[in-house]
Amino acid sequence: MNLREKTVVMTEEDMDRVLRRIANEIVERNRGVEDIVILGIQRRGVHLASRIRDLLRESEGTKVPTGELDITLYRDDLAVLSDDPVVHSTSIPVSVSGKKLVLVDDVLFTGRTVRAALDALMDLGRPGSVQLAILIDRGHRELPIQPDYLGKMVPTSKNEIVEVKVKELDKEDRVVICDREAEI
Predict the structure, then answer these.
(1) CA angle centred on 51, ends 47 and 53, rounded to 5°
(2) What is the mean pLDDT of residues 132-152?
(3) Of 120, 113, 130, 121, whose CA–CA distance to 76 is shortest?
(4) Cα separations in angstroms, 10 against 134, 153, 176
(5) Is the peptide bond before 112 cis (omega within 30 degrees of 0)?
(6) Angle made by CA atoms 93, 96, 98, in degrees to the nearest 5
(7) Which of 159, 96, 145, 155 is nearest to 116 (CA)?
(8) Over the stretch 99-122, which tens digit does the pLDDT of each residue have?
(9) Which sequence spans correspond to the domains of the chain?
């Protein structure tokens, strides 16, 4: 599928500012970072989670446990996506039982990725609470899932794609709305 960039939604500076705000909101809501565990949903959520962790360490002077969560095998559309799905790593440095988990992902769309992440988490233990931090909410929810921490709401049509780019994978930080171009 070919994509054509249409609108820049966030620059590198915007992303940094939003992640700082989200980190501050996490501290405020939880009255510190005690018992907090940050979990990034594979792939780009992992890098955003690491940045939030670094910002929390900078502001609170404490290292917050941070992990990676792969939800591939928990997706409800797995059979439709691929006969040979790519499974990434799940790595959580502490037990999730009784902890305040902050799930981090780049884009919230239908809510099905978050539902899969919740299923994966429940197989790992019983957290005290689960909070959701999202960089971009594009609407079109199919499940009753809303973020606790939101970078930016970006209304889109279902034909548009929100592409989040992070330096760690894409050599740049920015968010763009793209149109799908017809293939010839």
Answers:
(1) 115
(2) 97
(3) 113
(4) 14, 11, 7
(5) no
(6) 140
(7) 145
(8) 999 999 999 999 999 999 999 999
(9) 12-79+86-157
Q: Pick the closest to residue 116 from 84, 83, 90, 150 (CA basis).
A: 90
Do 135 and 152 touch, CB atoms closer than 8 A? yes
What span, in angstroms and rounded, lies between the C-alpha atoms of 163 and 42?
Answer: 15
Closest CA to 108 of 143, 68, 80: 143
How many Å apart are CA 85 and CA 177, to the nearest integer?
26
Beta-sheet pairing, 100-108 with 66-69: unpaired
Amino acid occupying residue 146: Q
Distance CA 40, CA 53 (A): 10
Question: pLDDT tens-digit profile of 38-93?
Answer: 999 999 999 999 999 999 999 999 999 999 999 988 876 654 555 566 666 788 99
- Rounded to two decimals, the pTM is 0.91
The whole-angstrom separation of Cα 7 and Cα 27 is 32
Kindly report the CATH number that applies to the domain delimited by 12-79+86-157: 3.40.50.2020
Q: In this structure, are strands 174-181 and 2-10 parallel, antiparallel, or unpaired? A: antiparallel
